[in-house]
UniProtKB/TrEMBL annotation:
Domain RNA-binding S4 as annotated: residue spans: 243-303
Superkingdom as given in the UniProt entry: Eukaryota
A GO MF label: RNA binding
Keywords (A to Z) from UniProt: RNA-binding
NCBIfam families, per database record: PS_II_S4
PROSITE patterns associated with the record: S4
Protein's name in the database: RNA-binding S4 domain-containing protein
The keyword Zinc is assigned to this record: no
Keyword Ribonucleoprotein: no
């Protein structure tokens, strides 16, 4: 009798993380995108003969996003291409909200194919994951705009360390939407730094006064004061009985399965930048798993290993 027993080897690379207070105005009302002064160019896009037409054509937009498998990402990119059409025709600069990494990547890729549009991403620091894009006619990009701002959230977190989810929840709890908030950089016992749209700085300084059970104060800081570590990488191989996210991430981040399950319950584990809802979610090649305060890992290769026994 021959019995086949399958195991799975997952090879992955893990990234390791390395003003004065005053009453502000009431919460402002925001449009989806708002114009601002001109930023410098990121790159001049090129357009093949088949795409050599002005932006804004529904057919052209469909061509630019047809290879995107995720419909929600494709729809977001189409909205940004339509905004690029308005910016180009009106000869003005428009900004998106903060975008998730998949939308950011696909949007930049699509915009670079257009001859009359330039785009530049702003996240506050070089390794930022969530960024805004400034988009406009190629002839009017001349100066650097102020499209992102940074805040320091300070408090005594020595006896109650708060997670990324705690800080984000408190910020969202003031009444603003997620799309107005960029990256959150944890600082352990000191608190955190957060990147936001400039229009929200005074409001958050006034409205954000507690994270978890810890009283906090906020003040605006220059972007160069953001504390971040350039990513360090390592490659590892693990053999697991399945490709469940709790199994692979536990091995990748060298933390216990029970601890990882707790992090998932707290909303601190994300798969391709979306919160993991089930411990048994199955990973695929190319998936990126992020754990707040730990870094992220990317599944690089999943070969199947078979071992045969004969009685």
């Amino acid at each position: 009798m021959i019995t086949a027993i399958a195991a799975v080897s997952a090879r992955f690379a893990a990234w390791l993380p390395g003003g004065s207070t005053k009453a502000g105005p009431s919460l402002p009302q925001f449009l989806k995108f708002s114009p601002s002064p001109s930023p410098p160019p990121l790159s001049r896009g090129r357009c093949g003969e088949a795409l050599a037409q002005r932006v804004g054509s529904g057919t052209l937009n469909d061509v630019l996003v047809q290879r995107i498998g995720d419909k929600s990402v494709a729809d977001a990119v189409i909205n940004i291409l339509e905004m690029a059409s308005r910016a180009s025709l009106r000869r003005e600069i428009l900004q998106t909200d903060f975008l998730t990494p998949p939308v950011l990547k696909e949007s930049i890729s699509a915009l670079e194919k257009l001859t009359d549009v330039k785009a530049v991403a702003h996240g506050g620091y070089p390794q930022a994951e969530r960024c805004r894009i400034s988009i406009g006619n190629t002839e009017i990009f001349t100066t650097e705009p102020d499209v992102v701002a940074a805040l320091s959230i300070s408090g005594n977190f020595e006896f109650e360390l708060c997670s990324h989810g705690d800080f984000l929840g408190s910020i969202i709890g003031t009444g603003i939407v997620r799309e107005k908030v960029g990256d959150i950089l944890l600082q352990g016992k000191r608190g955190a730094q957060v990147v936001v749209v400039p229009e929200l700085t005074e409001f958050l300084i006034s409205a954000l006064n507690k994270v978890g059970n810890v009283p906090v104060s906020c003040q605006q800081i220059p972007l160069f004061a953001l504390e971040y570590e350039p990513p360090r990488t390592k490659s590892s191989t693990t053999v697991e009985a399945s490709l469940r996210v709790d199994a692979i991430a536990s091995a990748g981040f060298n933390i216990s399965r029970s601890k990882l399950v707790s992090l998932i319950s707290n909303g601190d584990v994300r798969l391709n930048w979306s919160p993991v809802m089930k411990n048994g979610t199955i990973l695929r090649t190319g998936d990126i798993v992020s754990v707040s305060g730990k870094g992220r890992l990317k599944v690089k290769l999943i070969p199947s290993c078979y071992k045969l026994f004969q009685n």
